[in-house]
Amino acid sequence: MGNSEEKEARIPSLGLAIGVIAFITFTVSMATLYYDVDVHAPIVMLAVIIALIAYFYLKISYEKLMSAALDGVMTAMPSCIILMLVGMLVSVWMRGGVIPGLIYYGLGIINPSVFPLVTLIICSIISLSTGSSWSTEATIGVAMMGIGSGLGLPPAMTAGIVVSGAYFGDKMSPLSDTTNLAPAVSGGELFDHIKAMMWTTGPTYVIFMVFLALMGSKYAGGALDTQRIEAIRSVIAGEFEISPWCIVPPLLVILLSILKVPAMPGICVGIVAGMAMCFTYGSSWGNIWAITQWGYKPDFSAQIVAAADTGAVQALLSAKNISLAPDIAQDVARMISRLVGRGGMQPMMWSVSLAIAAMAMGGFLEVSQILKVLLNALTAGIRKVGGLIGATLGACIVANFLTGSQYLAIIIPGRMFKSKYEENGLAPKLLSRTLEDSGTLTSVLIPWNVCGGYAAGVLGVPTLQYAPYAVLNWLNVLVALLLGYLGVGIYRRDENGKDFLSRDLNLKTPS
Q1: pLDDT in tens, 49-65
Q2: Theoretical Cys-Cys bridge with 159: which of 120, 372, 432, 466, CB 3.0 to 4.6 Å?
Q3: pTM of the predicted model, to two decimals?
Q4: Distance between CA 372 and CA 78 in Å, rounded?
Q5: Is residue 19 in a domain?
Q6: What is the DSSP string of 241-294?
Q7: Considering the domain boundaries, does residue 463 fall inside one?
Q8: How far is 60 from 50, CA to CA, in rounded Å?
Q9: Does residue 307 form part of some domain?
């Protein structure tokens, strides 16, 4: 029966394949940009429609459709588990003073002459620590906007630097949902993916750092708003126990990564180290279990925000031996409260459910050969690895433009190009790196993309104004394309499943 069904199955036309992708784009864009709702339900609806087309028109059996959907979901399962562990990690790192400590010490090194460079570094550290570009932009990013204005920096410039730092962490942090999603789509491993990204992101980051270091001398004479910086540090110190030991858990995770320990055990060690710091500062098992489930809930900063009058604020500050004006304290506490109220497994279920729904839809698109037909059209005439990388980068940018979602800009091109990379002996981490080089980073440069709209809203600068200064985000795409054509950092996979660097730029199966 299997063979007869195989013969009866139809190959979709290019017109049908384009029509399906256009319908997906239209539906997701309407959901995110017009109705302002999450994409989960629309994606489930789209998956059902694609399955119906595949079953009734393309004559693909129900068994094959279900098998393809389940295979797609199972591909995402390791990353979904990692995301749940990441939720636990962030919560105990918050309660244990790890992430707050990094912010506290980072803010202590600001100097007017190096403000642009320090802004990039601090935003990078925070986004690496939290795995969230949005939280970084809405908290420390907003604070940096105020400090930058006091120094005379154009708001668009400061916003661009903040965005670059925030998305560096979003791209490189093992705690980021997109950093977990890209290798899941490509069939690779998390830490292999992160190491592979250093080929493109590392040089881009260094180039931007040198540029900012040279530019900083122009603002060396500016007056630094030390009052606000100290206010932020004071409220953080009032909320958490701050200690130099905060650097230990991140260093442990980094060390295990260098030693090639798989992601899950490495993150678990980070969780244990964070729990140890929580116990040191007086947490009970019940408290730790609660925050790993639902995330850390702000205490001191939330009390200041909720205080009824200046007298109540002053009383709270006095209890912690903090000398601040009540209005400044409330403003800073509001920012800190948003930043530290993170983590927990349940909040991570938003990303987990999206990955499951999207990967099931991807399975239907794959088994129906809709993605294969599109891939053949997109890669027609490509003979070199650089051309394939360029096509992947372009597909991610187009997906960001059309769908308004960085998640779909990773998932759809990832599922589309996966077989092409495999056929040509290219390692999964080359594909996952390319997806992030474009899909993650360019999302915030598009005004109608969810990421671009969010950054513009919280930073108070229109997307197209800060985009030229978000150098990391667009330069990384160019560096990735250049290295692809030069044959630098190109990973292939041998017959034994081992990855190796290769200067062979020819495709084995050119279209």
Answers
A1: 999 999 999 999 999 99
A2: 466
A3: 0.75
A4: 25
A5: no
A6: ---GGGGHHHHHHHHHHHTT--HHHHHHHHHHHHHHHHHHTT--HHHHHHHHHH
A7: no
A8: 11
A9: yes
